[in-house]
């Protein structure tokens, strides 16, 4: 996968994040996400990886919990500085960053059909959106995530967990975002389906050219789709770069035995 190093879509500069004045979840991380790149983030539960993903996603977060606060340093997304950013700036970014939360399939509206669920962000963005065009857009994305168009008239409870997760991915991409943030998209999905979901993300990224941050708990799975990997521990990056480079650097492995812990602790989130 080719990566353009001339365009930076996300930049973190000594970024510190938390949910209160003293509750620090991410402490002084630095990285850049380039246009057309997939960055993987792995780490144990509580390492800060989901907090970092949520900060990048900002107001695209689904649910009632507010995004983490920037306590120090800086974070820019698509050229907009998010520290002390106005609601107007954040709202504008909300439609340029797609967000797939953990177990995104469970966030589908149960009373809406699959087609309506996928198309719903189009109407949230513009209440006057053309229903026929929205339906065509939803159908194209359902096809892209490798599900039959017959599911459009079904309801979420009629689909498997893995199918619902792919529908949530389609919904996150329906507004054609420039960045996708996927927080552990294979969580709770059976082993045969996990690789398929990641493959779909990779294929769609190649077709549409968006940048992506994919949080995961299995280094072996993420290495098949990512350009670079960040390993988090206790709010810090303890490894960053291409997977083979990270694993072969003794200094980076000193505090954190990457291969053993990432291969055997399958239930990390």
Question: How many beta-strand runs?
Answer: 10
What fraction, in percent, of the residue positions are helical? Answer: 25-40%
SSE run: EEEHEEHEHHHEHEHEEHHH
- Beta-strand content bin: 25-35%
Give the low-confidence spans.
1-5, 262-269
What is the global morphology?
globular
| Helix and strand composition category | alpha/beta
The rounded Rg comes to: 18 Å
Q: Strand count, sense and closure of the main sheet? A: 6 strands, mixed
Give the helix tally.
Answer: 10
Mean pLDDT, as a whole number? Answer: 86
Biggest sheet strand order reads: 6-7-8-3-9-10
* Cα distance spanning the termini: 27 Å
Task: Provide an overview of this structure.
The chain is globular and about 50 Å long. The longest helix has 18 residues, at 191-208. The strands form two sheets. It has a six-stranded mixed beta sheet with strand order 6-7-8-3-9-10, sandwiched between helices. The chain has a four-stranded antiparallel beta sheet with strand order 2-1-4-5, covered by helices on one side. Helix 3 (114-125) crosses helix 4 and helix 3 (114-125) runs parallel beside helix 5 (161-173). A hairpin with a 2-residue loop joins strand 9 (228-233) and strand 10. It contains ten helices and ten strands. It has helices spanning 49-57, 87-94, 114-125, 131-144, 161-173, 191-208, 219-222, 243-248, 250-253, 258-264, and strands at 4-18, 24-35, 38-43, 69-77, 80-81, 97-100, 179-183, 211-216, 228-233, 236-241.
